[in-house]
Specification:
heterodimer, A: 103 residues, alpha+beta, Arc Repressor Mutant, subunit A, globular, B: alpha/beta, two-stranded parallel ribbon, 16 helices
Chain lengths: 103, 380
């Protein structure tokens, strides 16, 4: 299904979504069909999700992101790794994230 | 993991709405990309001929649309209604549409469906609109074309409409009900309900022209149903009648009791939405065409219009005795089409009662058994 996230891989937001910030909230608006169940479905990220999302810039690997977050947050590295992988896989499943191809 | 990282909601259940409204962030705007139309409906409040070169020249260019949309998005817009005239008449309709989508807006399109083609369908399939609202004027060529005054338009409508339906888009149907099609009202309702389940509404309120053209206004008035006809249509639609009852029970708009004495705008105009005309005129709502209430975006910008101009308009008041004694304190306001914008279109004044509206409101009140709640209308 291609929804396994890999620690050594680099990911970036898909071009099929637009990310908006309104009133301090991050809103993901799908622009193509097949992402939401309805044509007017909007997605928001919780605080943890958002902290991870902001680092998914197409340069850092998931491993790098876990390292960064471990130095910024109290949580244990194991917990952070679970969250990062969990969010990445959820976003991949929803086609909101794509893996950067290394040529 | 205790709470999900990501949650979703449809536009109407979106929790941010309320917060945006409280902060007066405009999440919705109408964009009339043309006033021209390939049809020429008897009741139309806006249309100019499809080949009207002068009107075409005044239209927002694609570049201007982009600038306005960029600003709208940075002010917080999440939803845009693209309307006209007939929006599909513009050669660059798909460029405009695509730009709106790419900016992360949900897009609703109002169309008569007669110009829908395979290219539109292809683009909409990949980049779906939130919904498409199609106007239905009749279920027979005779009735439909009596209204549109374009031979062949019924066949074009059926073809375009079927294309949209077949492709599975959210199609909402709206039937304007008037003298020339009221005999077909029940068939139109059946036709619409068979095709769209819960997305059908009829509208017996014909608005006067935005350009106040006296000839066309006479025509629109002659298409209007009588107050009694309107009420009996509403009574024949249980859901609609129920909604009216609820409105009536709520009595007067909550804001009107706390508002300043002469305040004109008791509605939501300019609180969370606005409207932009084909020739770059910003208004608090689509019908608000009083010269003191329009802002030319070609001489200013959207941010200034939203931040400063809206406040000025919403602060307008009237000290006219007639207004202060009638509409301003009217118990039937919730059942009435009266608002300053429509009052201006009907009478040339923002603060004058409108006899036809008054009659409809009273007929509605009577049907709802609220006749005892008297209106202080000076006309009765
Ligand atoms: S299709 Fe709509 S815009 Fe065109 S003339 Fe009819 S009502 Fe007006
Ligand atoms: S019912 Fe008459 S007085 Fe009351 S708001 Fe409507 S037009 Fe004004």
């Amino acid at each position: 299904m291609g929804v396994k996230a890999e620690l050594g891989a680099t990911y970036l937001p898909s071009e099929d979504i637009v990310v908006r910030e309104i009133e301090g909230e991050l809103i993901i608006v799908p622009i193509v069909s097949g992402i939401g169940d309805m044509e007017d479905e909007l997605f928001t990220l919780n605080e943890t999700g958002r902290a991870i999302w902001e680092k998914l810039d197409g340069r850092k690997t998931l491993g790098d992101i876990i390292g960064d977050l471990s130095s910024e947050y109290e949580a244990s590295p194991g917990e952070i790794e679970r969250d990062v992988i969990g969010l990445a896989e959820e976003l991949l499943k929803r086609k909101m994230l794509v893996a950067l191809r290394k040529d | 993991m205790s709470e999900p990282f990501i949650s979703s909601a449809s536009l109407h259940d979106f929790s941010l709405w309320k917060r945006m409204e409280l902060k007066r962030l405009p999440f919705l705007f109408d964009l009339e990309i043309t006033a021209r139309c390939n049809l020429n409906c008897r009741h139309c409040y806006i249309n100019l001929p499809a080949g009207d070169k002068a009107a075409e020249k005044k239209e927002l260019s694609l570049e201007e649309v982009r600038e306005i949309v960029d600003e709208a998005v940075s002010l917080g817009a999440l939803w845009c209604i693209v309307t006209g005239g007939e929006p599909l008449l513009r050669d660059d309709f798909l460029d405009i549409y695509f730009y709106l989508k790419k900016k992360g807006l949900l897009v609703t399109i109002f169309t008569n469906a007669t110009l829908v083609n395979a290219e539109h369908i292809r683009v909409f399939k990949r980049f779906p609109p939130r919904d498409i609202e199609v106007s239905v004027y009749g279920t027979s060529a005779g009735t439909y074309e009596k209204i549109t005054r374009r031979p062949g338009s019924f066949a074009a409508f059926r073809r375009g409409f079927e294309l949209l339906l077949k492709s599975g888009f959210n199609v909402r149907l709206k039937a304007m009900t008037m003298r020339s099609n009221v005999h077909e009202h029940h068939e139109i309702a059946r036709f619409c309900r068979q095709r769209t389940h819960d997305f059908y509404r009829f509208d017996p309120f014909l608005h006067l022209r935005y350009d106040r053209d006296p000839e066309r206004n006479r025509e629109i008035r002659s298409e209007r149903l009588t107050p009694q006809e309107i009420v009996s249509l509403e009574q024949s639609d249980p859901e609609r009648f129920q909604a009216l009852q609820e409105k009536c029970d709520k009595s007067v708009m909550p804001e009107s009791s706390s508002a300043e004495i002469g305040q004109l705008f008791l509605c939501g105009a300019g609180k969370a939405s606005y409207s932009i005309s084909y020739d770059a005129m910003f208004r608090l709502c689509a019908s608000l065409w009083h010269p003191d209430c329009v802002y030319d975006l070609r001489q200013g910008d959207l941010t200034d219009a939203w931040r400063h101009f809206v406040q000025r308009v919403r602060g307008m008041s009237s000290q006219r005795e007639e207004y202060l004694r009638s509409c301003r304190v009217c118990d039937l306001m919730n059942l009435c089409m009266w608002c300053p914008a429509h009052a201006y279109l009907e009478t040339g004044q923002l603060d004058a009662p409108v006899e036809y509206f008054c009659q409809v409101a009273h007929a509605r009140a009577q049907a709802l058994g609220a006749a005892e709640r008297s209106s202080p209308s000076p006309r009765h």
